[in-house]
């Protein structure tokens, strides 16, 4: 049996398929055979193997083998099951080819995406090419996304998505990857506000003084201020400019995604916009170094399987609860309207069983007699195992009579790579964001509101060994009042 040095070059692929109702893996290899001879050919997956021998002639040969694995688990997108994948291999003489595959049945049914018979609500962002596919896809998964929309998906993107349960909606299916789905839906995405369109304006981003001076220039500078000042007061520093432009893009996404998620039975999915961008001031949810921007933390709340959502329509505040998970959930929902001094105007509570894939309207609160610029609404949705909170301001931020919250932070190291931050406030603080400076990591939450009666405890998970003193020196905290004062 000729084996040693008999194969000079080879390529390999493994294709999952169904044959007569059974899962199978068709393995194919293109080989350059140096000499005629008899070869042992073996395919293996999930402890199942098939072996045969074949006589191969000298020259280029295509060799195939089919293996029927037993009891394989199916691949599911995040939020609907586990993304099971399996290593498989093919041996031809001395050569071994390896691949990783998954098994999934994907189709479009009446406009809905179905994976293994489960109807999927798509929670997406648009993919821009990046060398760091693994990190970027993991950030998408950590923000409760289950899909990325990509025009030209790469093998690196598919491989990361296979492992993390993220569907790749592209121009065509790819039979080698369970994450690959032909894009059969036009998903609504938020309109990018003028505050983040002219990112080319900030070609001198590192020169903060020049950047601020450019806001007063004609053209793009005025468009940027127009986009900010439609909602906020003019920023007086570079840090406040960054905060308010990021917050504006988060507002756009919150409005767009909320509109889609409350359209019971009609909306099949939503997008927050662009996942990652190389520019500091842009509509992306991740910065060029992969760090999370305000929009990404907003996405994690918006895309949570269970969450409260609120929308103002005319003179009414509408209160919703959303369940995009695979199971019915028993929920408790409480809603409070308070003023910026902490006083309570209204309080309501609800109990219900929220069905899978349901968006339910619980109440409509008339706002006609409320001074909207003096009040906000707080909603809390809780189950036996989870808690979700949401605030909504009843007027645009620039008109609000906000009070100085006098935010305070206490930090302590809680592990080799974790730092705990306790936030307290004397008056309600809105859209509180912690900036870790050059220290890379992810916060357990980072777009929050802090009320005088309820402190917030945030955990920062660092990528390297946590240095408490360095973190405290680098940490900056911004909130809506501070950004506009």
Proper CATH architecture of the largest domain: Alpha-Beta Barrel
Tell me the strand percentage band: 35-45%
User: What about the largest sheet?
Assistant: 5 strands, parallel
Low confidence ranges: 196-201
Rounded Rg: 27 Å
The count of helical stretches stands at: 8
Write down the CATH topology of the largest domain: TIM Barrel
Helix content: 10-25%
Number of domains: 4
Spatial gap, N to C terminus: 82 Å
Mean pLDDT: 89
- For the secondary structure, the number of strands is 29
- For the record, the CATH class of the largest domain is Alpha Beta
CATH homologous superfamily caption of the largest domain: Glycosidases
Characterise this structure.
There is one protein chain. The longest helix has 24 residues, at 238-261. With 485 residues, the protein is α+β, with helices and mostly antiparallel strands. The chain contains eight helices and 29 strands. The chain folds into four domains: 7-101, Immunoglobulins (Immunoglobulin-like), CATH 2.60.40.10; 106-197 and 253-303, Glycosidases (TIM Barrel, Alpha-Beta Barrel), CATH 3.20.20.80; 305-401, Sandwich (Immunoglobulin-like); 408-484, Immunoglobulins (Immunoglobulin-like). α1 (133-142) runs parallel beside α2 (155-164). It is elongated, with a radius of gyration of 27 Å.
Kindly list the characteristics that best describe this protein.
alpha+beta, Immunoglobulin-like, 485 residues, 5-stranded parallel sheet, TIM Barrel, 4-stranded antiparallel sheet
